[in-house]
Amino acid sequence: MSERLSYRWQIIGARDRISERSLEFNTVYEILESIRGVYGNTYVVGYTTRQEAHHGLDISIDVPGYMLMAYQFKAPIKKFSEDSVDVYRFRIGDTCARCTNPRLKENTYQVRNMLNKYGLPRSCANQHVILYTMATIIKHEMNIDVYYVFPLIYSYHELESHVPGILDCTIFINVLDFPLSMVIDCSSHKVEIRLPRASPHNISVVFYSKPKEFPKDKVFIASKFIKKKIEEFKTKDILTKERKFHLSPGEVEEILLSDFYKKAEKEDISLSKIKKLIDALMSMKFSYHGLLINIGK
């Protein structure tokens, strides 16, 4: 190994955990490259940390006047092997004080008091709750899905062995396909993605903190998913749809009550818990580039 190369590995670490930002950049590049075959003017909207705290989105893939897809990226927090199966563990639902009304200016005491008012723990101000809420509204108003992105890459050494071709080892899961119970409990959750070496496409997803296996038909390999989406783009005149809209507090509450109540009945969740969470959400403010939803009272 050359002295220069050795120095580079000393800086980033050949065996160090890869950063979420590195995974995001490399994965988005491949997504963008694929979609530009259909829409040459496709571009990426990258959100600031403060904007992400408001709505939970990392990035969206847009064309002028319309959003095509939206994502929240996750980097694996751990990788290990079990009987010829590689296991990648991720965490969703980290607590974030800034995931509340930005006018509170991240004052921990104000955040805690606001949630206590509704009989909810401070952990309800977490990224998954905010993302799930925004995904519900975007789906209702724009018929666009929001996805978690789980690249099965733990280190920079793994990254180098998968480029180009990161989408072949990246998993998409629709945010709204996660159980509502994982929102209502206001907790962080560990998600394990198991990849058999002998059959890499036989992927299974398990909620490690439950534990419960995720339906296989809801787990998408990114490369196949993007190809399918591109075919849909070719057959639909999506650019005629309206993107910008404004919702009143009453309209937002109606959307959340309708969607959450339907799912609560299927999962046998107390409706009173749903109402408490929605009351708290109505005291927060969510926003999206090109979409503004004012619900702060």
Layout of secondary structure:
Elements: H1 3-12, H2 20-35, E1 43-46, H3 49-55, E2 59-63, E3 66-73, E4 78-82, E5 85-92, H4 108-117, H5 127-142, E6 146-151, H6 156-162, E7 170-174, H7 181-184, E8 189-196, E9 204-207, E10 212-213, E11 220-221, H8 222-235, E12 246-247, H9 249-267, H10 271-281, E13 286-288, E14 291-293
Parallel strand pairs: 3-6, 12-14
Antiparallel strand pairs: 1-2, 2-3, 4-5, 5-8, 6-7, 7-11, 8-9, 9-10, 13-14
DSSP strand (E) fraction?
15-25%
How many domain modules?
A: 1
H/E element sequence: HHEHEEEEHHEHEHEEEEHEHHEE
* N-to-C CA distance: 61 Å
Q: What order do the strands of the largest sheet run in, or round the barrel if closed?
A: 1-2-3-6-7-11
Which percent bin holds the helix content?
Answer: 25-40%
Number of DSSP-assigned strands = 14
Helix count from the secondary structure assignment: 10
Q: Which features would summarize this protein structure in a list?
A:
alpha+beta; 6-stranded mixed beta sheet; 5-stranded antiparallel beta sheet; 38% helix; globular
Description:
This protein is of the alpha+beta class. It has one domain. The chain is 38% helix and 22% strand. The protein is globular. About 6% of the residues have low confidence.
